[in-house]
Amino acid sequence: MTYTLPGSPVLLRHFTLDDCTVLEANPATMDSDRFSFFGLPVPGRMRRRVESGEAHPKPGEVHGLLVVEAEGVCIGFVSWHPQNYGPINAPTANFGIGLIPSARGKGYGTEAQKVLVDYLFQTTTVNRVEASTDVENIAEQRSLEKAGLLREGVVRGAHYREGRYNDMALYALTRPDYEQARAASSATKITTGFSASR
User: Pairing between strand 10-13 and 150-161?
Assistant: First the structure.
């Protein structure tokens, strides 16, 4: 399974054992990515998920994990999980991204998040996709805005990292926003969002 958008330099696809090797060789550390570091990874955990098939989402699932590929190689991953608001089972898809250090700062993260937003709206029934990031992570906030998500506010003290609770900037896009952006785009170039206005 692969998923991309016309003109995008990245694609999303299922994990392979080779991808596990790449990611195991490039773990998040306090020095390389303090916003994604939550301690040492469990050795072999991703390999076990790939071998069991657990790492391969099916269309329609509101949880999953896919590789981000650019120029034919694994450069990171995207993941998503359901987030319910209230007692009705009508979840939002909350997503995140992790890129290896050599892939950062090249626009791949923004492109991967655009592709993922499109994938989630095209393959699930969610009415909303969202992502949050540390209020100090300015690069990811810009990336989410470029991917078409709108900043909705700050969720105070929601994220435990580096021995303390941190504030998170919350971004989201609803299905009506997404469909309006698609309708406004040309027939030959499909985009997943629009620049957030301030």
Answer: unpaired
